[in-house]
Amino acid sequence: MPAPSTAPNLMATIVSLCKRRGFIFQASEIYGGMGNTYDYGPLGVELKRRVKEAWWRANVTTRADVVGLDSAILQHPKTWETSGHVAGFTDPLVDCKTCKARFRADKLGEAQCPQKPSRTPLENKCELTAPRAFNLMFKTHVGASEDSASVAYLRPETAQGIFLNFKNVLEASRLKPPFGIAQIGKSFRNEITPGNFVFRMREFEQAEMEFFVPPAQNDEWYAYWRARRLQWYLDLGIRRDKLRVREHEKDELAHYSTATCDVEYEYPFGWGELEGIACRTDFDLKRHSEASGVRLEFFDPDTKEHYTPFVIEPAGGIDRMALTFLIDAYAEEMVENEPRVVLRLHPKIAPITVAVFPLVKKDGMPEKAHELEQELREAGFSTFYDEKAAIGRRYRRQDEVGTPWCVTIDGDTLKDGTVTVRARDSMKQDKVAARDLVAYVTQALRSWKQG
Ligand code: GAP
Fold first, then answer.
1. How far is it, in rounded angstroms, from Cα 315 to Cα 58?
2. Predicted confidence (pLDDT) per residue in 130-175, tens digit
3. What is this structure's pTM?
4. Position in ligand 1 atom list of the atom nearest CA 191
5. Quick one: which H or E segment has residue 68?
6. Is 288 in the pocket of ligand 1 (CB under 6 A)?
7. CA 155 to ligand 1 centroid distance, Å
8. 166 lines ligand 1 (CB under 6 A)
9. Whole-angstrom Cα distance, residue 273 to residue 313?
């Protein structure tokens, strides 16, 4: 396999590939776009769906001790007062008195002055106001009136919906600690800093789990989830040397946390948080118990005592995961003196699993190709049919979007019933009986390993 290299400006290359091939588009583009908001196109939606499926499978479906939840985006406003978000979910902002731009006081070194975009506000010696706290929650109104009594918030994290349903789930599922409640869903934050594409958005999807444990087991479960979540990224093909786990310093900890670490990835713009794993103690359950008057506790039938479980929370962003998989998979290579761009995505998350090509548009090959494509679809694989351009060009187009296998129907197919399966990574070709194609792809998917 040729040695891969990455593009000099990898971030811009990924953004351009995403738009050109239908992964991710700027939201409201025809109206000039909207800051930090993006739409997922046909391939992006498949990538994201598979990332969510892989997360759900690893954290819910394959475990007896975790159940799922899908809570509402709009919760009672008291939720966010009690959780501390109304008072404390803020960024420090400063205004420039000259150009009227607004910056995050703690990110001035990364910001651009609109009057001189090559400089940061610090380099440009902008005249900045003193920092003031800016709440990141989006406010809206529920019902017909728009007064202070009708204020509601779009959730800034999915976690609170889990705490609010602790008692419901406990009673309905009859689980006992240690157990987890997981959910994937949209969250909203009025982010002010430029976002590095989908790394920081105003509307994004989170995959979070609150894992409730007896307090004495806090440390062992924290260590367990740290290791487990790092391994998930490795199992899905992320390079080990691009990942690290960073323990938070005491002064970085959120108000509810006694220990937190981040799984970080080395992005083209530097190391950044991909996922956080936090010890939230009994903070949230106790606060919501006090504020609602409903006891959010577990009654241990063995000791005959009530106690409030401690919480370990692995919390990741689906959009950040998708971006990370794209960046990590991207490679440019020279193959027989021709450049090739390839996304070495794990086949479990590749948007298209198998592309099907008739070698030529005649002699019954398109009909046979459609027939095989349908068989693959019915077996649950996502497929793509292409009969345009030379076969080499069709391979390259699929390499660029990460399709692990391309199947060509040629003269042999009509004679002896074999097709050619070409692998994205090795570019090797195998002759396979058409009737064994589904079994072949199933096996190849199961045994795939990062080269
Ligand atoms: N319940 C804990 C919580 O929300 P967080 O670190 O604020 O913790 C968890 O968010 C994850 O959600 C982050 O690690 C990141 O992957 C993702 N995330 C947070 N803000 C985001 C944003 N503005 N855009 C995209 N993803 C974001």
1. 14
2. 999 999 999 999 998 888 889 999 999 999 999 999 999 999 998 9
3. 0.94
4. 23
5. strand 66-68
6. no
7. 12
8. no
9. 15
